[in-house]
Design brief:
About 35% of the residues lie in helices and about 25% in strands. With about 350 residues, it is of the alpha/beta class. Strands 10-9-11-8-7-12-13 form a seven-stranded parallel beta sheet, sandwiched between helices. Strands 5-4-3-6 form a four-stranded parallel beta sheet, sandwiched between helices. The longest helix is centred in the N-terminal third of the chain and has 17 residues. It is globular. Its EC number is 1.2.1.41. Keywords: Amino-acid biosynthesis, NADP, Oxidoreductase, Proline biosynthesis.
Length: about 350
Amino acid sequence: AIAQGLEAVAELPDPIGDVLADWTRPNGLRIQRVRVPLGVVGVIFESRPNVTADAAALCLKAGNACILRCGSESFRSSTAIAAAVGHGLKKAGLPRSAVQLVPTRDRAAVGELLGLTEFVDVVIPRGGKSLTARVAADSRIPVLWHLDGINHTYVHEAADPEMARRVVYNAKMRRTGVCGATETLLIDRSVAGTMLRPILDDLIEAGCEIRGDTAVQAIDPRVLAASDDDWDTEYLDAILSVKTVDGLDAAIEHINLHGSHHTDSIVTADAAATEAFLARVDSAIVLVNASTQFADGGEFGMGAEIGIATGRLHARGPVGTEQLTSTKYLVRGTGQTRP
């Protein structure tokens, strides 16, 4: 799968040099805005060794060099993958130093990397809250944020019951430990009595623990009481918090207050509710009638991703080759001077 990801990235169009805008001023100056590499990208990650290959491929495709710092859990696997990448670079006639893996498990190396302002242009943390918090506190280099995935699936009163059942199950249980997994289910109070029980039956039968508000507990006695903290928790496990809401406005308010601006979905057949949800939910990825587990660069046709950016500057959503570029302006004249 890792090799297939590399092949998918290789087949993507080269983003460098793309002309994003082209116009001519009244004085004859022709101005173009084009894509250029970011430069040297530092990627700090933890336990998933596939990030070694994904980050290397995406950075190289976008014309960047990268310095990778993995966690101790993936050190040996990442070292082997980085060696394979190095072999490929040499074979292709590219600089071996274009992809470097920090060759130590010492945590002090993270602090060292975060201070290399002269050599590193941007840092991307890929991991849990503690890693992200450390990078936020210590980095002297611009950071492309990848925060936690407190994601919601909202079953609107106009949802198709069978579709809601399928989407919610997949959004929670396909893989519970990924950042695109749904952690909170919201359902309109008006349909909870009829739609919720089959959804909960599927989840509980698959081994999912349900933590709900009093209305949800009244529908199913197997549901545990949800605490205030549950609405702000990324479980990354077979645990789901479930809350009844009084309509679309209440659902959107809950998502924007308790979510992490990562990925949120609505299940509905109502066109007006769809457009309101898309416009007003302040998240990097907003879906309609689809599982939140589609929050993945590969599923977006990007070949792979370094992560899902949840900040508001430069890039938001899956970070692929285009998001690993910046822009510059090319201005062509014929001797113009400014009066």
